[in-house]
Known about the structure:
The chain is of the alpha/beta class. It contains 12 helices and 12 strands. Pyridoxal-5'-phosphate (PLP) binds at residues 59-61, 64, 85-86, 88-89, 145, 171, 173-174, 195, 197, 209.
Amino acid sequence: MAVPFLDLKQQYRQIAGEVRRELDEVMENTTFVLGPKVGAFEERFAALCGTKHCIGLSSGTAAVHAMIWASDLPAGSGVILPPNTFTATAEGVVLAGHVPVFVDVNRNSWNLCPCRTETFLKENDRPGGPADPKTGAVIRALLPVDLYGQPADLSAFEAIAERWGLLLFEDACQAHAASLEGRPAGSFGTAAAFSFYPGKNLGAYGEGGAVTTSSDDLAAKIRALRDHGSAQKYFYSMIGHNYRMEAFQGAVLGVKLSHLERWTGQRREAARRYADLLSGLPVELPVESPGAKHVYHLYAVHTEKRDDLAAFLKGRGIGTGFHYPYPLHLQKAYAHLGYRMGDFPVSEYNSSHNITLPMFPEITLEQQAEVASGIREFFGEHAGVSSV
Ligand SMILES: Cc1ncc(COP(=O)(O)O)c(C=O)c1O
């Protein structure tokens, strides 16, 4: 039995009627950019995240960029983030005119490590504030990522931000409806960025993103920035961008938001089933951090020989991914920052050992059993592979 990595067609079949009605309404009223569908979605998504505001944008990349850009940090500020994330996290920092400063992640959660962050700040403290020893950039913000759908240790980062006078931004692009100690992802710190890329837990039918924040000033500024720096038609108070959300995406997201809680429950149930099916095999399973509600955007396991395992599973029609196979500090785009192999051993381990298995709300027990039997067969054929 073939098992796709992701199956968006099944989800569409559940909601096709609702989606078509909503898209028809957009076509009837012909407001194709922003408009009432985006406004209604923004209100409901802010409520889910427990923030005063949600600003709908054209992508998650735009969201990371806009929240940092709108925060008016002095040019060239250092922003601490993990190396094992999608490039857009660091791109947002660079596009806003700042410097990505990498700190390694925690061995269990694979998220930015608060202890290493605190140690980095202490070791590099200077009279003008802690500075990146490689670039000299003064550290002014933290940008943890809720990787795979598991919230980073955000309460610890709130405390660090407070102690060191830093802004805290959250890259929640993979963590719709996740929470930590009962607080929703998206509600920590100054602002958070979400992506609604189609494969995300809450995915549009095209590109989409949002910033959530409880700051009135920041929200007003991001609303202006997404629309060419204009809060009033024909008047441009600053240089902005075209980061507006399309009405079709707001309409689709509004429909899907009503199903998100159920879909999240199904993902969590599927994760429990994988834990049973994969127990005893030489794969390291994801660990839900204490107090965290992991929403399993990606189900990542870690193992030796993961390239061979991926090829083996592919041969059986089972889709897998690597998230992410090369950490950002070793990517050409960030070579100017001066990092080397060996700088972040945990992130490097993650990059070379992670393999993401099929995960979507509708995945069946039979499909998961097929994945598990493929993995069991692989390790049977490769007996002697060291267990983790
Ligand atoms: C952690 C993270 N940050 C940022 C982004 C960028 O979002 P988008 O693809 O919507 O631009 C993504 C999307 O893949 C992501 O996973």
